[in-house]
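Re: [ENG-882] Designed sequences occasionally contain unexpected residues at chain ends

Forwarding the minimal case from QA. Structure tokens:
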């Protein structure tokens, strides 16, 4: 590949451009009116306005993006994450136009994007799944019947959902009735599919995901796991690898299950198999994300591999750079912190001008993947993540110490951010101990408000 178009924005666009420059691959960026002054627009070799600020009038305009790609003579399109990255119709369109889609094939995206179908495939492949629906719940009566069988609390989920959208915990039948129609309507609005299903809600659980990578020659490997259990509103805030407070035996079983899941669908390129782990370390398949993840730098830090470079090589038909599992190693520890323009207590977005954006003195073991520069505006049109700060070290204690020192020197003004929360978490006993669950952050915040 000599030239690629990046169908995305912000820090992931900058991230992809960085690797392309190392490989002498020419890059084409597309941008909306709101993003005209963003760093990625200037970093790309060529940049073109794609539309208005609203996402459905710019970054989701499949035909327009492909038109730019064809006009500019690109070889491939990288979708990044979010936006069109898991849109099977987009991947199919790219392929039909004779371009390379840098990701899995559209059929894999389609089948794994349907959470009910994905559950069945995994169950048939021998991968443990959370007790729940064998098919979608067509009515509240069928949902009530199933919930009675598996027992409350249950999770009501959109079949086509992702990113924590279209997912709600129902503690009892009253809550299920209350949220059933609204969840279906939300699913229809976001994903064009109003099908919902139920899963048993596993409280005090940990959210562990495994990075997998496959090529077009039948090779498939894992690149170890990430713990993504520090969450608010089902959205990840902090991710780390290796996962603390998890036995090596459970890790090995989970990594093997992730590879089995990938092979069950003939997976190619970068993907992530997500699991939920209960207090007894029983783990269950949640979903497969058919794209590069926001938290991929954590894996890059511990494996010393460039996942975007791997994506590009696999997309053009090359063998995995390391195709034997025993040739891939995890060393040290890494933690990623997502910095958002949001109120640290309510989590409501805080758009505005970044009048000050200073990352302090450069420190060993700190990587900053920023989507914004000082003087840019955080607009209300997109996810308010300003940057990802990845801290690595020889062990977890060293990471935490580096992170405390680093965040002590970060200064952001003009918008509210979650920096105060990040600093608090770094000193919280439960986080430092490593035994936290997906409920921990919300419980911690509730306790702080009451004290």
């Amino acid at each position: 590949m000599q030239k690629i178009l990046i169908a995305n924005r912000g820090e992931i666009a900058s991230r992809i451009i960085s690797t392309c420059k190392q490989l002498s691959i020419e890059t084409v960026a597309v941008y909306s009116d709101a993003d005209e002054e963003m760093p990625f627009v200037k970093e790309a070799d060529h940049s073109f306005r794609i539309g208005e600020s609203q996402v459905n009038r710019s970054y989701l305009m499949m035909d327009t993006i492909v038109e730019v790609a064809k006009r500019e003579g690109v070889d491939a399109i990288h979708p990044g994450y979010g936006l069109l990255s898991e849109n099977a119709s987009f991947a199919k369109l790219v392929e039909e136009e004779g371009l390379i889609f840098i990701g899995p094939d559209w059929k894999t995206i389609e089948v794994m994007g349907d959470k009910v179908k994905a559950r069945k495939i995994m169950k048939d492949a021998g991968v443990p799944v959370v007790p729940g629906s064998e098919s979608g719940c067509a009515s509240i009566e069928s949902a009530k019947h199933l919930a009675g069988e598996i027992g409350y609390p249950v999770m009501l989920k959109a079949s086509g959902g992702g990113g924590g959208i279209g997912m709600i915990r129902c503690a009892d039948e009253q809550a299920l009735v209350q949220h059933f129609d609204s969840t279906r309507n939300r699913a229809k609005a976001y994903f064009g599919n109003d099908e919902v299903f139920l899963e048993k809600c596993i409280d005090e659980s940990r959210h562990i995901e495994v990075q997998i990578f496959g090529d077009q020659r039948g090779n498939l490997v894992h690149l170890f796991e990430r713990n993504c259990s520090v969450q608010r509103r089902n959205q990840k805030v902090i991710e780390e690898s290796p996962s603390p407070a998890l036995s090596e035996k459970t890790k090995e079983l989970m990594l093997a299950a992730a590879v089995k899941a990938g092979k069950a669908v003939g997976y190619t390129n970068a993907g992530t198999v997500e699991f939920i782990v209960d207090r007894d370390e029983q783990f269950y398949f949640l979903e497969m994300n058919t794209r590069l993840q926001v938290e991929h730098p954590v894996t890059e830090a511990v494996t010393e591999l460039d996942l975007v470079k791997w994506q590009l090589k696999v997309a053009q038909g090359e063998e995995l750079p390391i195709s034997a599992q025993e040739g891939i190693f995890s060393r040290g520890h890494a933690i990623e912190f997502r910095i958002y323009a949001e109120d640290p207590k309510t989590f409501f977005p805080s758009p505005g001008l970044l009048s000050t954006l200073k990352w302090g003195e450069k420190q060993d073991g700190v990587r900053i993947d920023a989507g914004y520069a000082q003087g840019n505006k955080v607009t209300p049109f997109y996810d308010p993540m300003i940057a990802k700060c990845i801290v690595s070290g020889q062990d977890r204690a060293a990471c935490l110490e580096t992170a405390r020192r680093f965040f002590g020197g970060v200064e952001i003004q003009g918008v509210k951010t979650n920096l105060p929360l990040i600093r608090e978490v770094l000193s919280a006993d439960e986080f430092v101990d490593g035994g936290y669950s997906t409920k921990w952050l919300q419980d911690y915040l509730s306790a702080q408000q009451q004290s």
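QA comment: On inspection the terminal residues look reasonable. The chain has a mean pLDDT of 94. Proposing we downgrade this to a documentation issue.
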